[in-house]
Please model this.
Amino acid sequence: MHKRREFQLPALVPVLLVVVTMLSAQANGHNVTKLLASHPSLSTFNHYLSLTHLAELINSRTTITVLALDNSAMSSLLSSNPTISTVRNILSLHVLLDYFGAKKLHQITNGTALAATLFQASGTAPGSSGFVNITDLQGGKVGFGPEENDGKLGIFFVKSVEEVPYNISIIEVSGVIPSDVAAAPTPGPSQVNLTDIMSAHGCKFFADTLLNNSDAMKTYQDNVEGGVTVFCPLDDPFKQFLPKYNNLSAAGKVSFLEFYAVPMYLSMAMLKANNGLMNTLATDGANKYDFTVQNDGEQVTLKTKLNTVRITGTLFDEQPLAIYSTDKVLLPKELFKADAPTPAPAPAPDTAADSPKASKGKSKSKSVPATADSPADSPDGDVADQTADSKNSGSRFGVARYAMVILLSFWVCHLLH
Ligand SMILES: *[C@@H]1O[C@H](CO)[C@@H](O)[C@H](O)[C@H]1NC(C)=O
Ligand SMILES: *[C@@H]1O[C@H](CO)[C@@H](O)[C@H](O)[C@H]1NC(C)=O
Ligand SMILES: *[C@@H]1O[C@H](CO)[C@@H](O)[C@H](O)[C@H]1NC(C)=O
Ligand SMILES: *[C@@H]1O[C@H](CO)[C@@H](O)[C@H](O)[C@H]1NC(C)=O
Ligand SMILES: *[C@@H]1O[C@H](CO)[C@@H](O)[C@H](O)[C@H]1NC(C)=O
Ligand SMILES: *[C@@H]1O[C@H](CO)[C@@H](O)[C@H](O)[C@H]1NC(C)=O
Ligand SMILES: *[C@@H]1O[C@H](CO)[C@@H](O)[C@H](O)[C@H]1NC(C)=O
Model:
């Protein structure tokens, strides 16, 4: 047997810091939250860029133009109490995927151009509804409108706010670009089909198992509105695990499936900040069914007495629902034996709780203030990002970056010996 090499951490830290800084700088040449912070008249807009996670998407791209709205334009946008998803759609129509500094705006070739937007890139926008028409008007004015504008361009350039050529230009415009499509009500979280999202992103076996268990499925659905975070095992590990699942008692199966969801919304940033014991939808009195959230550097892990799993991706993140995938099947100690060989613990079906569970979940959830959510810079992101824009996905990029850091640090360790 090999004797394990001890990593010399103190010696490594500066090297790691340099590596991390290099990688971060590549990823984040600009920080839109920071750029907007010195403009109080745009503070609501800035707040909503963070809340909708658009800030992360903006920071992950270059050659981009943000059409900023002042606080009064934002309050008229918010006056109809749109859902956060609708606000996200509307604001993503205000992020142009090209660089327009003040100078370029006034010198558009032939006086008019169509710009693609983040709304169009999100895949949410049908047809050409995600494009913005920019036209130089008489008297040096620049007008903006949706592509279909009936000859009306009612929104105007006000001033340049910040320019970092040719990475990001932030300009203030006179109001919200009208778009029925972007402003259309977006389904709230209770209408989101949880299992469809999981199936489409690598957790199909878990989703199918959940769909086949009406009791567990109902617990999930009942909790979504109040906030739920799901940690679903990826298909390969879950497929291998299925014989053990099928060995559980009926009540054991329900608790097992409910064990993978926490009755509150947790963004990746919150997971990184809040380590500790988590109750799950299966927690019921003496049947603890809990696990520990723990950070290993930037990597978030979940841990029970039996094993530890890593979060590998963000499948969905829109308050109050978050879905993450895990690299292995986390084992609740209530259903599996501790002394079994680690990769394949033997199930103990009869220890399953057979008592019916009346109320669960919500009542035990910690209250998490909505504003504690989502620093704009969280590298882990949002579903539109992953589904429609995977090349620029903050989350995948984040994972890749950390994987690189880990690989590099091992390589450095190797060199040091
Ligand atoms: C522009 O973006 C590139 C690539 O992300 C980055 O290397 C560069 O530093 C950025 N420039 C400025 C002025 O921020
Ligand atoms: C961006 O700026 C905000 C506000 O200054 C700051 O809190 C955040 O950490 C920054 N993000 C990055 C990735 O530097
Ligand atoms: C500008 O107009 C000319 C003449 O109508 C046309 O040939 C050219 O393609 C246009 N350029 C752009 C960038 O639209
Ligand atoms: C933009 O809208 C104006 C006014 O309706 C129209 O004349 C112009 O052709 C449009 N530009 C483009 C590039 O579609
Ligand atoms: C979600 O979609 C699946 C099929 O993809 C369906 O069987 C299930 O009933 C749907 N769930 C809800 C809550 O609509
Ligand atoms: C669905 O559940 C039933 C029992 O409730 C079981 O017999 C069947 O094998 C399950 N199917 C799948 C695909 O898990
Ligand atoms: C299922 O349970 C039985 C009895 O406890 C056990 O012998 C068998 O190995 C288990 N099968 C799996 C796949 O765990």
